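Supplementary Text 2. Reproducibility record for the structural model of the 399-residue chain.

All settings were left at their defaults, and a single model was retained for analysis rather than an ensemble. We include the record here because the model underlies the residue-level annotations in Supplementary Table 4.
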Amino acid sequence: MKRVAIVVQRCHESVVGGAEALAWQYAQLLSTGFDVEVLTSTAIDYISWKNAIEPGVRMREGISVRAFSVSFERGDYWRKLYLRTIGDAPPGGAPQGAHFQREGVQEEFIRFQGPHCPDLEIWLRDHGHEYAAVIFCTYLYSTTYFAIRAVCPRKAILVPTLHDEPPAYFSVFAQRYARYEHRIWLTRAEQRVAARLWGFDEGDVIGMAVMHAQSTRAETRKRPYLLYCGRIDSGKGCDELLNAFTRLPSRLGVSLVLTGVDNMGLPRSPDIEYLGFVDEQRKLALMAGAVGFVLPSRYESFSIVTLEAMAQRTPVLVNARCEVMRDHVDHSGGGFHYASTDEMVRKMEQLCTLTAEERSRIGTAGHDYVLANYRESIIRERLIDLVERVIANSDDPAN
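Retained model, structure tokens:
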């Protein structure tokens, strides 16, 4: 059985969502036909990148996970670099400062934002020949940017999870990743962002599987509610969500329910319910029972949680300033999008006052869109096909 490695910045049972969830899902999907090993850091916390687990190999659900120590935690030096390079960048725009233009400063930013794992790069340099293909998840971190250079371009597969954010404008990213032509885009919209920011968009649009597309019994709560699931911080637009929610007419009588890790400090209010971390089954039940699922983030390359809500026939509301999310809604008819806080308030009120017929029509449209594009069998087939093509190409003596 051919060996395939998947490189990602974190891999632990307590880490949910994002590129980490994508990498783990790909590991599971590929494990039916390949000997898969995940290569990652010993960190769990994405803010400090503090070493939290022992370096070395452990098994997770039958898949080998090899962890490498992080050289240093993120500290004041990186925060100073952040201010010098992208601290003044407008949302969805390129940094303007002179320091941003210097490639050496860009690489210093990538190294010190973490997690920096030199032993991971050394491992791939010494053992890369043992893998038939190596998949790198997310463009942003040191574990991809520095480690990918240790792998022959013919056997490397880059999964950028790219969105329009200030670091994506760093010239060093486009220069390095242009050499690695095997790429996985999660959506056509992400591919368009790459063409605009990096000047190339070659690769396969594969996406991510919605593993729980079956209908779930809705959770019953005393009041109708809007739902948000994910990391709770301003970078995810949660400050805008709270602002909009407080402006809803009181006559609607709805609650805002949030799940996930609260990095922002939610206000105490009888109308805001913070449930913390919930298991998968309860998350789906909450989605099924919500009057609407709201994702205010403008920095998304896919958003599996939004598609999970759509699979539960729940109308969604997303940030139109995120091209990927706008595409999901426009192509599915499964919800609404907004371009300003004022419009967000109006669309949230619309979600809360849908008729049963309107809710059924929108919910069915979203559900059908997910099944048509992101069923597990579809994503597995696309993924295995690409990996097999990469392996065949790297084995070809002509290459």
